[in-house]
Amino acid sequence: MNFLNLIWLIPLFPAAGFVINGVLGKRMHKTVVGTIAAGAVLLSFIVSAGAVFQLIQLEPEHRSFTLKLYEWIALGAAHTKSGELANFSVDWGFLLDPLSSVMILVVTGIGFLIHVYSTGYMHEEDGFYRFFAYLNLFMFSMLTLVLGNNYLMMFIGWEGVGLCSYLLIGYYFHKRSAGDAAKKAFIVNRVGDWGLSIGIMLIFVTVGSLEFTKVGEAIREGVMRGDFHVSDPLFIGIALALFIGATGKSAQIPLYVWLPDAMEGPTPVSALIHAATMVTAGVYMVARSNFIFQLAPQAMAVVAVIGAITAFFAASIALVQNDIKRVLAYSTVSQLGYMFLALGVGAFTAGIFHLMTHAFFKALLFLGSGSVIHAMHHEQDMRKMGALRTKIPKTFWTMLVGTIAIAGAPPLAGFFSKDEILWRAFSSSQGHVLLWLLGTAVAGMTSFYMFRLLFMTFFGESRVDHHTAQHIHESPASMTTPLIILAIGSIVAGWIGWPVWLGGTNAFEHFLEPIFEPLPIPHAPAIAYSNLAEAGMAAVSVAVALIGFSLAYFKYYRRSWEQQREIRQYGAAYPVLLNKYYIDQLYDALFVNRAKGAGKSLWRFDSNIVDGLVNGSARLTKRSADGSSWWDRWIVDGTVRFVGGFIKTFSWPVRLVQTGYTQNYALVMILGVLIFIGYVLWGTP
Amino acid sequence: MVPTHYYLILAAALFTIGIIGVLTRRNIMVILMSIELMMNAVNINLIAFANHLQQIAGQVFAIFVITVAAAEAAVGLGIVIAMFKNKETMNINEIDLMKW
After folding, report:
1. What is the value of pTM for the model shown?
2. ipTM of model
3. Range of the domain at B50
4. Long-range contacts of A502-508 (CB under 8 A, 24+ apart)
5. Nearest CA among A142, A166, A190 for reference residue A10
6. Which of B15, B23, B31 to mutate to test the interface with A (most CBs of A within 10 A)?
7. Residue A65: strand, helix, or coil
8. Nearest to A394, CA basis, from A117, A37, A107, A42
9. B14: in domain
10. How much of chain B exceeds pLDDT 70, in percent?
């Protein structure tokens, strides 16, 4: 069986699931709905695994398989920047190469586990079928995004996942906050999508194609011919436009504000969309466009700096948040910052590697938090938790694994990917020691806030209220099994990128190498570091993580959490951190309220000027109609009535003849006949 | 052989009785019967002249008149029944719709 020719089925299965559940789900049993949804994703995963397995069998340089289903848009000739005409033709085509292989395996694999988890988590919810229909639609969009062989198909998927994100954040649409969060996510993403669409248009205008492979080749040839240069303002522009798109979807400064609010959605959605898959679309897109970014080192510097700052900024907010999902949300923003830091310093593989490992442990942590919330009857506030360790042991142990993994302790997944990023931030010719310092500080903070979460939730004194405490229960197997599988994944996922300095081969990096082949442009000479230096750096980051852990240990484990103590420790910084640096308020003042004000003044213009004109013309029409009605009633009708009345008045003698008695008429008739006969007989001479 | 003017006198008498019936009686049924009388008077005239002039057309015409009279009686009685259903009366003076 040739799975490679079947890759078009991968997005199709969830699409079919969406249609079936969306149309018929309301009338089907919950088990059937859940089975269809999860089964569709499982089929996708099987085909993906088969296809990737066959791709690996090929020689590394041939590991790029394009499947074109049909020509989707054929606009014909279009002008490009160089003055030549290019054929604007977009195929409905799929591209399977190492990069999309990683993405589809992560999306379908983790997606399947989250679908299974959702059947347990969402069991009591209304609109069960709606949830799974949206979830399948999301899977379809996400797989189109990562499997599409051109920028336009990626854009379709990009918008599709945005839509599903909106729908699922607003799943509890009867809650005002959920509706607001959904709108916020959608609107903030519009800003990013604007950048992405500009970038895509510029790409076509520059190279005359939208297919990833063709764009890559065209740029490579252009560089060799000398048409394209490093630091060409055009490429910096394209790269920055694309990065604006990435900041929207992947929640980077300045467009990260929607992601923490997106936690209003159900927890499996947070795990799937807002941690493991959709938010990494920006990372995927930048990695996919690496040939463009390579020509724009300035843009890459922007990416790296934004990534590092976002990582630090979000981690600092996560330090004091009390909502278990918000901590994880800011953690996600922070980890995405890591990925962009990696991309920005040219370590595309490291970014994708962290994307993959992060998908495992962040999905695990979110699902674990969902399990906690499930046990606590929808209580998300960690101030009302504590000492849950023995009550929900499976959740505790799996979340412990996730926490250790994200903290970066060897040999769990997070260690390998995070360490590679930090090392490349330091050692790459595009890196900088300040970026490394920021990254390392974030590693410490990550460790701190994650263990704070763990200790506040599972250790210390119980702050659970009496009523809830009696009903705490471990989640069903449909929820704990995915947790256990993800926990195993969080341990072993990093091993495929076992670094050279630890005696490994870093198979993951070699697998992705063909995608990120450097362009033939002058590179700054890479400084050769010994394995020992890398090992030393790793030791430093592990040590920093350990410091974070011990701080959390002393502050939240040795003594149970107390609000007053925490507030005192941070001093003046506490309200700033708790209120997320007042960024939401700032955006409200700068953009939201301005936009609202502009809308209000437009509304006033509408209600006063436009409506005034309409109402005025209506009043004028009414006046003239009144006049016309008077004319009609008195002059026209008057004449008619006068004529009628005149005739009526003067016709009374005549009408007396009409008696209505048949016999009168007959008599008159007979008299007439007699007169006539008389006239005939005697009248004529 | 009866002379023709005997027939004519009989017919004129019958016709006159019919006219008087139509003009004076108030019952619709009687009026209808009077009309029949008038028509038969005409028939006698037709036959008499047919005999007198030795022309067959008069007899044929009389057959036609009888046929039409039968149809007229059917229609007339139908109208009378409909009228009675609506007005619950046979009195012609109460049926004065032909007024202004």
Report:
1. 0.78
2. 0.84
3. 4-91
4. A502/A535, A508/A349, A508/A353, A508/A356
5. A142
6. B23
7. strand
8. A117
9. yes
10. 99
Helix A281-288 to helix A98-121 angle, to the nearest 10 degrees?
170
Tell me if B99 and A660 make a contact (CB, 8 A cut-off): yes
The token pair that represents A569 in the structure block: 């420790």
How would you classify residue A625: left for phi > 0, otherwise alpha for psi between -120 and 50, otherwise beta?
A: alpha
Cβ atoms of A372 and A323 closer than 8 Å:
no
Domain count, chain B: 1
CA atoms within 13 A on the CB side of A350: 27
Q: Rounded distance, CA A166 to CA A21, Å?
A: 19
Q: Report how far residue A540's alpha carbon sits from residue A675's, in angstroms, rounded to the nearest whole number.
A: 142
Between chains, do B92 and A662 touch, taking CB under 8 Å as contact? yes
Q: Which residues of A touch B19 (CB under 8 A)?
A: 670
Distance from CA of A679 to the nearest CA of B (A): 19
Please, which residues have CB within 8 angstroms of residue A168's CB and are 6 or more apart in sequence? A131, A134, A135, A138, A265, A266, A269, A273
Query: CB–CB of B100 and A662 under 8 A?
Result: no
DSSP B25-71: --BHHHHHHHHHHHHHHHHHHHHHHHHHHT-THHHHHHHHHHHHHHH
A648 → chain B, closest CA residue:
B100
Neighbours of A260 (CB within 10 A): 27
Residue B99 Cα, gap to closest chain A Cα (Å)? 4
* Predicted local distance difference test score (pLDDT) of residue B100: 53
Kindly report the CATH number assigned to the domain that includes residue B23.
1.10.287.3510
What are the tokens at B22? 């139509």
With respect to residue B21, please indicate whether it lies within any of the assigned structural domains: yes
Separation between Cα atoms, residue A558 and residue B70, nearest integer Å:
124
Q: Tell me, rounded to whole angstroms, the distance of Cα A83 from its chain centroid.
A: 37
Residue B9 has a pLDDT of: 94
Chain A closest-CA separation from residue B13 CA (Å) = 16
Query: Using only C-alpha atoms, what is the Rg of chain A?
Result: 37
Q: Which of A648, A656, A662 to mutate to test the interface with B (most CBs of B within 10 A)?
A: A662
Element (H, E) at A611: helix A611-630
How close, in Å, is residue B47 to chain A by CA atoms? 22
pLDDT along chain A (685 residues), means of 10: 89 95 90 93 95 91 90 84 82 93 94 94 88 94 94 94 94 92 93 94 91 92 89 92 95 92 92 92 94 93 95 93 94 95 93 94 94 89 88 93 92 91 90 92 94 91 84 89 94 89 84 88 78 88 93 87 84 87 90 92 92 94 95 93 90 79 87 92 80
CA gap A21, A144 in Å, rounded: 20
In angstroms, rounded to a whole number, what is the distance separating the alpha carbons of residues A161 and A155? 10
Residue of A333, A327, A393 lying closest to A365 (CA atoms): A327
Q: Do A658 and B96 touch (CB under 8 A)?
A: no
Q: Please answer yes or no on whether B98 and A665 come within 8 Å at the CB atom.
A: yes
Inspect the interface and report whether the beta carbons of A661 and B24 lie closer than 8 Å: no
Cβ of B99 within 8 Å of Cβ of A665? The answer is: no
Give, in order, the Cα–Cα distances in Å from A426 to each of A348, A415, A437: 15, 16, 9
In a domain, B97, yes or no: no
**How far does Cα B29 stand from its chain's mean position?**
12
pLDDT tens-digit series, residues B57-79: 999 999 999 999 999 999 999 99
- B100 in a structural domain: no
Instruction: Give Cα A462 distance to the centre of its chain.
Output: 36
Sign of the alpha-carbon dihedral angle for A248, A250, A254, A255: positive
Distance CA(A93)–CA(A388), nearest Å, equals 50
The C-alpha atoms of residue B24 and residue A333 are separated, in whole angstroms, by 114
The predicted pLDDT at position A80 comes to 81
When CB atoms are compared, the residue of B19, B24, B99 closest to A658 is: B99
